[in-house]
Amino acid sequence: MERSTWWTTAVSDIEPGSIRYRGYPVEEVIDGASFASTIWLLLRGELPSPAQARLLERALVAGADHGPQAPSIAIARMAMTCGVGVNNAMASAINVLGDVHGGAGEQLMEILAGLADADDLPSAVADVRRRLRYVPGFGHRFHPRDPRRDPLVGAVTRAVADGVVAGRHLEVALEIERQLSEGRERAVPMNIDGATAIIYAELGFAPALGRGLFVLSRAVGALAHAWEESGSGARNKGPVPRDQLAAYAGPPPRHLEPRGD
């Protein structure tokens, strides 16, 4: 089959009867690589070490779902009651993972990268805090302490001890966490965005890929909730129960003057 340079790619090599991921036959990838390792291979060009793959997998697992109170998941479920397919419901969820809902990890990765070479880390972190209204990736509107924080931070700490990652991004994030909690009656621990940002940054992923990886992870929850909702029999289910109405804040009742024609 003739090759065209209209599109060029180093990700995959496809010919009749042959599929290669970054040069590896797909048959060998199927037998020898985990899903996390395959993600790494396609994004980075080489396979990760087993320890790197395990760390990446932990982050992907941790971000998979956060229930229907998460806007993206609620949207997936609502979309499903409108008669669309599972793919449409998943796309609806993914399309709202923006700067506010789903983007904090990428934003924190950019901050971590900017502070990684700081000679005086406490002073550099304090300067960032003065410039930002809030630091993304810390605190949670629902959890006093995000239950995903400790296992993920613990995994990175072990990976540093084992020489898998360098640990500088972890160090920066912990200093931010320390300063945010200093002098407060209630601590401000990092949330899922903060903890996964550390992992993705330590593993060498670009900040924009941090958001992409979170989207990939959360797509699992969107799929599960969309599929569950498809069996409910509900139709056109809105954001509030049918016996409730949205609070009205507009003008009081009024009338148009007759047109006179």
UniProtKB/TrEMBL annotation:
Top enzyme category: transferase
Transferase recorded as keyword: yes
Region (Disordered): 230-261
NCBIfam families linked to this entry: PRK06224.1-1
CDD domains found in the cross-reference section: CCL_ACL-C
Gene3D superfamilies for the chain: Citrate Synthase, domain 1 (1.10.580.10), Cytochrome P450-Terp, domain 2 (1.10.230.10)
Gene Ontology biological-process entries: carbohydrate metabolic process; tricarboxylic acid cycle
Protein name: citrate synthase (unknown stereospecificity)
EC number of the protein: 2.3.3.16
GO MF terms, alphabetically ordered: citrate synthase activity
Superkingdom of the organism of origin: Bacteria
Keyword list, A-Z: Transferase
Annotated organism of origin: Pseudonocardia kunmingensis
UniProt-listed InterPro entries: Citrate_synth-like_lrg_a-sub, Citrate_synth-like_sm_a-sub, Citrate_synthase, Citrate_synthase_sf
An example Gene Ontology CC term for this record: cytosol
Pathway the protein takes part in: Carbohydrate metabolism; tricarboxylic acid cycle
One Pfam entry name: Citrate_synt
Family the entry assigns: Belongs to the citrate synthase family.
